Amino acid sequence: MSRLVVVSNRVADPRKTAAGGLAVALAEVLNNTGGLWFGWSGRIVEDGGQPSLHTQHAGPVTLVTADLGQSDHAAYYVGYSNGVLWPVFHYRLDLADFDDGYIAGYRRVNQQFARQLAPLLREDDIIWVHDYHLIPLAAELRALGCTQRIGFFLHIPLPPPLILAAIPGHDWLIRALFAYDVVGFQAEADLLHFDNYVAAEAHAQPVGEHRWRAFNRTVQAGAYPIGIDVDEFQGLAQAHEGREMFERMRREYSRRKLLVGVDRLDYSKGLPQRLKAFRALLTRYPETHRSATLIQIASPSREDVSAYTDILHELESLCGSINGNFGELDWMPVRYMHRTVARPRLPGLYRASRVALVTPLRDGMNLVAKEFIAAQDPADPGVLVLSRFAGAAEQLKEALMVNPYDVEGTANAIHLALQMPVEERRVRHESLMATIRQYDVHWWCNAFLDTLAQAESAESGTPWL
Ligand code: ADQ
Question: Which regions form coiled coils (predicted)?
Fold first, then answer.
């Protein structure tokens, strides 16, 4: 069997319970297959210093990480990845910072990673590259002569061609995707955008279903919605910390219905709109006073990017004004925490909540939606209020679907969720559970890797870059 090599911006020890969608999912995969996981060490060294490699063995997995120079990190990570690709791929051209210098740094780091990884590769390795930080990695590996099968999975959305085309250098970026053998997206919508882009902008020729030929290469595209490990998450719910959290929450909020939101503090997650919808709920439905409490947990994220500090301040001010205007001596409508919750406690929190608010303005998938479903008591389950703009909405049809930009409409849906009789909650939950079980993290991994294993080994050389 071929060895699996995973490459992603950050690497996590798969023996530890990690936070973050990508880290959680990849730890699952590598623990099962063994292999090599390569990425950035998280260390920034002074410019001009020799960026060193670190090797660590974690059970069946070898972790190899590389340091980044200060200005490379600024251009590759803060600049191009999170200042250009993240906002544009989430349809936020208004937040993009198209600085000329970023793309060169992005390319330099991908070149550095390719040079460091290539000597570690074996001929029959299968290489799986993850996410927007590393789009040109395969092209750089091919330029060094690597002919292994290489797949790419994009964890975030791919916007329609005319939004993508606003990025200076977008044609270079998409051309780089043709160095892969398989390119995977979260949702059918993203796949359609890819098909439309390569047909119109790259003049690619269709040679099969979602199979395209351009730049002397053939790439197979597909939608592989990521899932969670349902058993692992339910195991956490039954473990000591999960149960303790559940019981504590139930005691504390015995007379109230809990609503819960768990996100990274990111402008794509629609947090201000969510709080405005909650405020509209309190305004329109006075019976919710004292009877509903929203717990919003937003973990610190990318605080070196200015759009993130803006959203932090907006959120603090909204929470303060809701509590100031509606709060009573014995009732705080919103409990807002700017921190990460330890993963073993999450299922207890979800299970104690009647409603989950997963209302991103745009999201590749959103794993919180799936975790919330997995953690529920099937006899008395909570209700998922889900944005139609999350990738998860293509699969989780029995959720209460909302348009997060429509504050009043979202408030009405939350009200419906709070009122929903137990019979309807059970029926919806049963279907949602069946979906997340069928399309779990193992399905995701196998479906992608099966396609990649069937691809023919590639030609080397990158005449197009
Ligand atoms: P993220 O944008 O990080 O991931 P998401 O899918 O919601 O978003 O994953 C978050 C993970 O981190 C979940 O496992 C969640 O439990 C955990 N998490 C989030 N906030 C937390 C908090 N405050 N405290 C503790 N844990 C928290 C990206 C894409 C998503 C895609 C994933 C996986 O943006 O669309 O679903 O990758 O592909």
Answer: none
